[in-house]
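User: Fold this; tokens only.

Assistant: Input:
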Amino acid sequence: MLALLTALTLACPQGTPVSGAEASGLESLLDRLAARTAERRQKAEAHWLEQKELYLKAPDQYDLEGFGALAPEIQGPVLEDLVAQLDSQPGSALLPYVGLLSEIMNPTGAEHLALHLPALPLSVRLPALTAVASRGGPKAWRLVEPFFHQGPMQQRLHSMEVLAIYGPVKRCQSWLQALPADQWDERSLSRVLQRLGQRSLPEDFRLPESVRQNPSPTVLTGLLSVWQQIPDPESEAFLSGAVTTLHLQTKTRQQALSVLEKSALSFRWRNAERQLADHLRNHASDPMAETIAWTLHRLDHKDGAKFLLRIPEAEVKARPRDYRARMKLGRLLVDLDRHHDAYKEYQVAIKQVEVNEYARRRVGSDDWLYAARAAAGARRLKDAAEWLESSHLSTAELRQYINLPEFQALLNKQPFKRMFGEG
């Protein structure tokens, strides 16, 4: 109603006289709005009185749609009942009231609930803090902040979680620093960091050193969620240590490796890459060894490709007449962007199958496609066209590979232009 009155006031230029008829019309409108609001409040109060016992008996099973239809007016009687029972009811009896308010109240209701936060038992105050912040509008975090700076540690940690979701991101840096590292509960700290990782962080966002240096695997998950978004130049040793720690969960190690790769350009040195290369030499049986090797390759470290090639090269050396071993090596060389080496392997392998009709029938479309990629990348266009034709892939099937870098430069040349349906 206040918003409407303000709008109506602004619609009338200052200094413009309002006639008696206009004033009368405005008063009539406001009277009708007041009557309608009073009617909704009466309905809300009646509905709450009628349904209160049913709701309080089984709040988790109660359908809140009826309460929602009467929001926000119904927050009034709910808040009144909550306040009336503060001194007489245990926390467990007050929780359903807070649960309902967290679904139906508006910013004004959140401000009223905030006034009673100190009187609530701790077990009720914590979810009430969340309700106030989530329902109180963009500046409701200010109602929560005082509870972060005082009170029991459980309250301060929970308030930090709420502020990490609803407070200004830049303030979160100072809030994190305000709690000594030895007072953090690891799970709470991890949740705070994960909440921050879900938000849009500024490029200059940095976690306090006391948080960054926490060695706990539980906290590591939260740290990674932040660093995945905003790389930290000081995290190099921490990340490489996490990747090479064998007893950590594979999922956590994979996430640390992903963050390390993304952050590599921000690192001053290349110590992490050297540590990963040493890890491959000493722990070749690590289930993550191949994944680490591919990361090293993408970071342009030669030991990545060296590790990946060691077994396929050994197989070709042990069975030089086995075309399948050569094609396997050739495929890997293509994936490693070593097209000239791959072309040499495919050249030998295809000569081997050309004299063996049974072997030639066993060469699949995918094998010919990779052979053509090797030849195209090595600029052996005649072989590339012939091997691509041998794949017997239709134009529609070939078009899914049209953006591969080996073929991109050939799309203005025949027969590649025709085969890819470009004219």
